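Let us work through a complete example step by step.
Step 1: write down the sequence.
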Amino acid sequence: MSQAVSQEELKSAQENGKEDKEKEEEEAIQEKEPIEKPQDEVNDLVSDTNANVAEETASIEPQELNLEEQSKLPEGHSMAPVVFRKSIKVAFSTDKTGEKPKLEPPWKKNLFQRVAARAQEMQKKIVKEENLKKELEKKTEKKLLKDNLAKEWFDTESTSLSTRAYLLDKLLPTLIPGVEKMLMQVEKKKLLEVDTPTKFDPINFLGEYLMRNNPNYIKDEMSGYQRVMKEVADDLKTRVPDTINNRVSKIKEIIKQKREQRDDINKVKTKVANTRRQALEEQFNEWILDPSGMIPMAVIQNVLHEFFQNPDFQLESSYKALEIIDSMEPRLNKKEFIEYISSHIVNFKSEMFEEFLRHLCHYADEFRQTIKADMRRQMFAELFLYCDHGKVGFLDRQRTLTLLEIFYDQSPKVIRTLLRNPRQWPLIEFEDIDLPEFWGDMDNQNHIYEDFDDTIIKMNTLLSEKHASKVQSKLLDQQIHDEQIKSPPLPTLPGEQKTTAEQLQGPSVTTQGAHTRTTPDEGADGESTTEQSQQSGLMTEQEPQSMSTFEHETGVELTAKQETPKEEIVKQEFHRQSISAQRPYQTSVAEEELLSEPIAEQEPPEESVIPGSHRGSTAEQEPRRESVVQQGSVTITEQGLYIEPVPEHQNLHSSSSIKLREVTSKSVEIPPQEDLFQRQTYNEELPISSELQEITISSRKDGLSESTRKEVQKQQSCESKLPQIEGRSWSGAFFTCKLKLKYPKIEDEEQATLIYGHPRFAELHPIIRNIQAMKEGSSRFAFDGVSLRLLQFVQLLETFVGEETSLDVSENLTSFVKQYYVETKEEKISALEQTRQKASRIRKGLLLEALFQKWDSNSSGFLDLNEVDELLYTYKEGLEKESMKKAKLHIQFPKAHPGQEVRLSSKQFQKYIELVVSELRGNEDEVMESVVEFLMNSLERSHKENLRNSARRKWLHQIHRAAQTSGVSVEPVYTETFKALNQDAEAHGNKKISAHISLLEENELLPDRGNALLRNVACTIDDAPFVLNKVLYRDMKGISFTVIDEGKPIHVPQVQHHGNIFFWNHTRHKDDYHGSFLALPLQDAHMRIFGVIAVDTLRDPQEINIFLPHEIKFYQGVANVFSAAYHYVHSREHILHVIVTGIGWLYGTMPNINTITTYLVEPGPQQDSDYVLRSMMVTGHLGLTKIHTNRPVIVRKSCIFRDFLFQCIDSSEVIVASACGETHIVVPLRERTGEALGAIDVNIGRSRMLLYREYKDLQKMIKVVQAACYELLGELSGETKINYVLEIEHLGEVQRAGILFFRIMLQEIQESIQQVSSMDIVSLLMYDHKLRRSIFSQDASDQDQNTEANTKLVRDILLGAILFVHPELEFSSDYEDWDKCKLYVNRCLMECICTFDPTSSNVGVNLQLIDRYIKAHSRIEVWNFGQTVIEYLYHWTHICSALIELNKKLASRPPLPSKTDSYVYSKMPGKD
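Step 2: predict the structure and record it as tokens.
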């Protein structure tokens, strides 16, 4: 047996060897054509080789994957098939974890092991023999040296090549030694002598030798000559065409080339890998490290995540493969950092790797800013805990704002320009601003940043003047140059040359008055300090993005060490001016900086401060903060800024910072309670970040060559950074991530734990646990406008200090608030009482909700009031019955259902029980617990009922959760609804059911068949061909319209005996019509019926399959939950509709916003996970809104560098933050409870902030959108009644959502116009008789021109408003006479404006004529005019015009998300 096995093993090994040899020959033949690659494509070849290998590996799939198409659901799975109006594709995947591997027999495994071991032994034996043979050959070569004389036989002449090869192979190796032997015999016998007789025959000798040494029989060792001859023969045989040796040699040559090429590629790969490792090693040093020299892994994963998301690189596979951890604990040292990043970028090409290095360098700076913000937030969180003396969990909002106002007012100007005004939005809310003030405020001084608009205006003026002077200077130089070309230059003396240069340069400008002049030592090249400042300003103009925000406010201008030629300055200035013309309102920080301080040519002499100059008495009396533009550190003095010069060798962009030191001014009086500002100094270090340097260098690249530009970028990316942040080392703790874990929102959990420890409510413990388990794991704080929670307090202070201030300012603010945040004893007691009352409310809510769910054992969602009263009145044996009846006088019960049944929902039940308890004597909390305990013990429920109730609650919760996680799509709600019905039918009814949902629609095509119809929008999959999209009219059979009219469910136990049942499946035989049918109405919060949900058992094979009472009640609960989920989805749709309308209006007034992104909050994928943000739509630069259908989801762990989105949702506060060099204004969309349901992210680009006009328009849009959200959500919950104001609102919910934004804006403007005084109207009418001074006018002609333009503006706006109210004026003779038209402007006109409905059918205006008047004037023109009434009327006329356009286009509305498209676009309704 063993011999047979060994023979089989040997045979199989030989066959395997033959197969391997054949495969190698086939591969060699396939690689016959050599690959030729130029040297410059080696890098691409390296990355492409890896990519090809990855593709080939991914293309290999096991055949078992084909079994997915034949997979079946496991037994007991109750997934109900459903069909929607829109067909969708669902791919089911096989659960591979459940598949059992096939077991192989043990004998087979043992046989394979023995065969493998035997084959290895044979292989080792063969290798050993080959090695011995090679060693013998080496020894032989050492003994017998090669005779290179045989190489003379080598000749590649083609005609005799084959013959020579044959002879050298077959004959000459034996013949040549024989001839040699023969000659030796001849010489030995001296036969060469003349006339020597001999019997020696050379021919015979040679023949005998050849016969004795026949190579076929004699195996002698070859001589050195023969060895070389054999080598020559082998070489010649390979050159004979069409032979095996020739083909084999070519194959070997190709293989050799391939091997060499592969070696070269490996060398290049190794070199590239080493270079990249070195670059990553240098990059590691750029990051802020913890004390152990490590970086959190999650940070690096976020950096990779942001890079992979770039659509230009097409790295979707890498993006999907990256899994971000949800913890900051795992850290990476330098080696792990390099290895981790290298594993994700192994296939990157050189260009992409360079982009990635720049990306890493940029995010290293971003991480510095993130750590700085984290340090600041940690300060503020500790401040909150310090000020929360009573540990109540909140602070007073108004007191905090008052302290911020005091701190802001008493801060130095240089600090105040960096802080944000606490008297303005977003630090205060819109509700804190009066309506006329909100809509009529046009004072630029109310900007969130002090003197922001004035700085921009001065900057634009200066830049335009400088540009004009430079162009004129260039023309003059060109003219002089042309004259010199035409006429030969005359010889001039050195003094004349000096005079000409001075003429070209212009006179030296001094601004010191009598105390400053050019010294003789300076000579021709000497310049005053002010000239250096001007030249520095010119250099700064070439760097529009290179200055920090602090420099913009203080006026400190940074200059380059090398002077730019005059021609280059003009070119770059012209290029910069062209860019500014394209985006006139988004100015860079450096451009703003140019005018943050007075310029020498434009300001009086005493306004300039020159180091070393003498100051007059005026400067001593008035404290001023002016600047001198020069390199060095800046010191704030009572007169201004003193700038200390720095050595010339010090680099401008080095890590040295500009230090600001405050010297207390004697002329500023500080109240006694604010002595803190006298004791503390502002030592503010402002290091120039790498991002700032990168912008500085990029702004200079217009005048650089491509190679120089790349070199500058390379130097910039490799620039080292300080390992500290403003002199502070990072502790390694990431406080922002721990903030929510360390101080969570735990009121519910605390009260639930207390209830668990109370044995008297033991029966409610399981229900409360289910309630807590189904509750969202939300950590969002509700905004109430009165108090500040921890996250809200931290966010408010962070918004106040901004991102540009140093940590010293935050420390000073912390110390100030610690000292002056004082609460009285009464306030502390009041806060503790509020906390106790809130805890009591939460406890009562949990107990009553658990009691309601126990009482409602069928999960119907309501209780019968009579049943509740009947049990309540037995409390204390009826002694409290009369007191309980008094509670009914203070509550408004819902409308009674047919049959005089009053149903109480969960909230109504809780409110009723609380009113009943309030009428009883004793401590309210103790009485509440006593009543709950009594009702709990009075309700007897079996264990089966409790289990059934618990299961049904979970199914109903899944319907609600589907609505929350659907991404504004109703299809998942249909899915979960049918799933709940099928699961309950199988588990608790033992039935097979069919179901469909029908919604009411207006019958516009066939009104004679009824004014409404029912359309089947969803059904189970078996009934899809017969039910889906079918329509039921009133004149058809059926009980659905009866259900709608009566408002109650109808149950038909046996449909075959009912004569008014409509059967959709006409193919079914009449004898098969056996089963029950149940139709239930779908009602909204206002008890309006909008559809029917129908369930039947026609497909159930059982004969008795009627619906039991507990099933009918559960189906009612399903209908209620479906109705709530359905309206939840559509309320979000309407909110998106309002936002699209608002964004369209905003882009009409300020089109230079980069993007506006809308997010909605959704629960996390897991029940206890944190919430996520879903990006719903993005509005681009042109105002075109892209509405996502495959809506991306953003999780917190992937947003370390964009955490401001989640901070906005957590605190429900407005956030102004920067990311990737762009400023974001993130505004929360709040629910009526104060929690954020979404956020609007307004990206304003690289500008520090919007102009006040744009900022004010943004506030108006946000306020109106939020008011619309409140109204829509109130109507959804039933808290508020639907308010129809305009006639167009009665046309439908979709049309109403489309105009709701304009309606609310119209109402607020009308309310503001009501408060306009008569003097304001008279002043407008008399404006053409006045001559107002314009702020920017220079002479009388400009003043007249401005007055004429303003007069035309007033007339056009007033005339447009008159034509809306009095359209008959167009056909009157008074139309051409303004003196007669202005008689229409009176109080009556204002009253008509306040009640005007532009959508009314009675309104007939010439909109084209009105648009000619109102649209002839821009928003800037109206703002600059600065008159409140004109501002009101301008908005009012535009809103009326938009509403009239919308009324003409009733079908015009933004498209809502659809699963059939990848995305859709939308503009504001009414826009073409």
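Step 3: interpret the result. Residues 628 and 855 are 79 Å apart (CA to CA).
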